[in-house]
Amino acid sequence: METRTKRRLTNGAIGLLFLFSGIEYAVILPTIWAYLETMQAEPYFLGLGLSAFSFSGLIAGPILGHISDRSQRTKPIILFANLFEIVGNFMYFMGYSKWLLLGSRLVAGIGTGAGACIFGYLTRSTTTDERATVFAVVMAARQAGLLIGPGFNLFLRLCNFNLGPFKVNKYTSPGLFMCLMWTILQVIIIFMYYDLPSVPMDNSKVVSVEEEEEPLIGDVNGGVADSSPCSTAIEHEESHVPPTSEAVSENRTADEDHYIPNGHIEDCKTNNNPFHNFSAAKEYLREEVVVVLTAQFITLFNQTALETMVTPLTQKYFNFGELENSLMYCICGVEVIVGFFIVRWLSTKFADRVILALGLVICNISCIWCLIFLANPKGSSSILLCEFVVGVFLQILGLPFVAVSQVSLFSKVTAEKTQGFSHGLRRSIGGIATIMGPMWAGGLINNLYIMLGVMMGLLTLLTIMMILSYSYLVEPAPTLISSANRRNMDDD
Fold first, then answer.
1. How far is the C-alpha of 230 from the C-alpha of 223, rounded, in Å?
2. Burial of 70 (0-12, 13-18, 19+ CB in 10 A)
3. CA 301/CA 289 separation, integer angstroms
4. Are 452 and 370 in contact (CB under 8 A)?
5. CATH code assigned at 310
6. What pLDDT, on a 0 to 100 scale, did the predictor assign at position 451?
7. 48, 97 contact by CB (below 8 A)
8. What's the predicted TM-score (pTM) here?
9. Which of 40-54, 61-75, 270-284 tops mean pLDDT?
């Protein structure tokens, strides 16, 4: 089978995995609160149930990502992770008690750790120019699941029969349905997913450095003296003129203490350990990385807090039930998918940091709107519904801009060789946000000024951080290393 065919099949399998994850969220979220009520669960169990899924995922992500970095294989890890999705959703279907339901979300959440491996694979198998586009499509697949999911709920809510000792109704059927879906995905992964080799470094964009005492060889139009993979060099984006020997020496001295992420330079030594010369402190405590991880946390915290607030709010002011909520999530899914494709188009014309800035502007406007009109609702139901729709529309509109840009930026400012672990860490931070968001909102449903005020404060903090660090939110250039230094590296 040709590599191109394998790549298409693999991408299709990845798309289905994210599609199913979106469907799972959409079929369970609208009914989980009513499901818990049938078990006489306390109100805080809603926050616990939503947070449990993220809690196990934040632990599983870095572990599975680390394994994929070392093995350079993702297929067996995905198959292993999906087993937890199958078991967890069957436990949700059984539904004997509120504690079993809580445990089911914990078990199923482990399966989300496969996402770290997949983002690592996508980073290694794409160039930096096309990465934002690819990430946008993958994220759109999950949002398509959020769109399709409510449609499944339309017939799942009609279920009312027995399956052996188990009762199948509108509350338990989502668990059984997703158990079958993840089982089907196991078969698809076995036959359609391939661990393909990484995309090689584009040597046409770099200029290698020879001995310090020798002049560089290459024409002034950007010719390359030595284009071997062991030649570590710097891209000349403006002049395309090779630097002089003196400039090479000065640059090396100036950059001596500057950390370049492992994987952004080519190591002439053959070393299969992706964590060779890896420093977690230097890798993740750099200014640009901290800003991107902060964006991950704050946007997911605000998003999940608003999602938790929406269902009780629509029930209180508009008397929405399962059907109305499912239709609302369906409409929101359409908007998000359109937003992701807008970002996909914009990513070919603008840098990631520009898209991130635009997304933050929209999110700030949304939060201000909610503070003004939704924190203390007044007026008729029709006016309140219009205010609610505008607030939700703005919040959803900004989500794709921030989500895609921060993931793409993160993949560029962190080590390529350890992308699985790095994305696992990023998703874990997002997991902490999705744990804290529902719990924060769940305890402040009746005090929206405090809830929305803190969200506004977090967004303001992120906006200030992005402005101050704007110049750092770009992919770092490779380090200049002379041939003499490369020989010393080989001798070590």
1. 17
2. middle
3. 18
4. yes
5. 1.20.1250.20
6. 86
7. no
8. 0.68
9. 61-75
What is the extent of the structural domain holding 403? 3-198+282-472
DSSP state of 379: S
For the cut 70, the answer to whether the pLDDT of residue 144 exceeds it is yes
Instruction: Answer yes or no: is pLDDT of 257 > 70.
Output: no
Q: Is residue 331 part of a domain?
A: yes
CA distance 444 to 103: 25
Residue 208, C-beta contacts closer than 8 angstroms, at least 6 positions apart: 224, 225, 226, 227, 228, 231, 232, 233
Distance (Å, whole) CA 422 – CA 427: 9
**Which letter does DSSP use for residue 113 in this model?**
G
- Other beta carbons less than 10 A from residue 239's beta carbon: 9
**351 domain-assigned:** yes
- Would you say 433 and 297 are in contact if contact means Cβ atoms under 8 Å apart? yes
Q: Give the span between the Cα atoms of 156 and 2, in whole angstroms.
A: 41
Query: Which neighbouring-strand residues pair with 207?
Result: 234
State how far the Cα of 479 lies from the Cα of 11, in Å rounded to an integer: 33
Name 317's Cβ contacts closer than 8 Å, sequence gap at least 6.
Answer: 377, 381, 384, 388
Residue 278's pLDDT band, with cuts at 50, 70 and 90, is: low
Q: Given a cut of 90, is residue 185 above it in pLDDT?
A: yes
Q: How many domains does the chain have?
A: 1
Question: Looking at residue 478, what is its pLDDT?
Answer: 58
CB 6 within 8 A of CB 194: yes
- Residue 221 within any structural domain of the chain: no
pLDDT tier, 1 (very low <50, low <70, confident <90, very high otherwise): low
Residue 463 lies in a domain: yes
